[in-house]
Backbone:
């Protein structure tokens, strides 16, 4: 979990894989910058956006391979098969989803900036309560709420409230696709829904480690 803050700060890229590397639909592995660019491109279906009134909600799929890559960077471990397998096992069974919320080009909680009580409640909701309101559903699977949410505030630096949500999907095959529903309880966003198609997930390229 020590890499949640790193991943949230890079909110343009997309969301988590359960159980390690996918069978890739791309013939050539991509280095990390190209991999991130692939995830960012809405054409690939792994970053999706909707609006609710003046608010914008962006949902991004975060492959666990990015956590593995960041651990390699921070630890300076060699990218050997043994090291990669060990790191993948550490993140196996979890799916990571990024959720970005903005209103008027700024963090969504800033609508309450002149009301200290409501502002504090909004930040608390983003840090803790929101996890229970975001559900992940897969084919033949019961909906599961996020087991954790991470919200490091950016204080106006990004123009959005960026969260990373973690789901326990150890019995799932994420390659079959999944659906995320955010049942908002605080910001009046309704229940935005994002469908990640099996073909788009399966087509995710392999990440090439340098």
Residues:
């Amino acid at each position: 979990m020590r890499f949640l803050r790193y991943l949230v700060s890079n909110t343009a890229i997309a969301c988590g894989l359960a159980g390690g590397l996918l069978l890739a639909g791309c013939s050539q592995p991509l280095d990390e910058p190209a991999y991130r660019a692939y995830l960012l491109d809405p054409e690939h279906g792994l970053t999706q956006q909707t609006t609710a009134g003046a608010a914008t909600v962006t949902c991004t799929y975060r492959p666990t391979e990015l956590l593995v890559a960041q651990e390699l960077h921070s630890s300076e471990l060699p990218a050997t098969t043994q090291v990669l397998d060990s790191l993948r096992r550490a993140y196996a069974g979890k799916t990571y989803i990024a959720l970005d919320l903005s209103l008027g080009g700024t963090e969504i909680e800033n609508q309450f900036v002149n009301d200290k009580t409501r502002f504090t409640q909004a930040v608390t909701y983003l840090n803790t309560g929101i996890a229970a309101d975001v559900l992940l559903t897969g084919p033949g699977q019961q909906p599961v709420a996020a087991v954790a949410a991470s919200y490091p505030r950016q204080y106006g630096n990004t123009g959005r409230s960026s969260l990373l949500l973690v789901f326990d999907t150890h019995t799932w095959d994420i390659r079959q696709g999944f659906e995320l529903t955010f049942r908002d309880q605080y910001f009046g966003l309704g229940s935005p829904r994002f469908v990640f198609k099996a073909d788009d997930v399966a087509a995710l390229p392999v990440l090439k480690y340098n």
Observations:
- The CA atoms of residues 13 and 40 lie 5 Å apart.
- Helices lie at 4-9, 32-40, 64-75, 81-91, 116-127, 198-202.
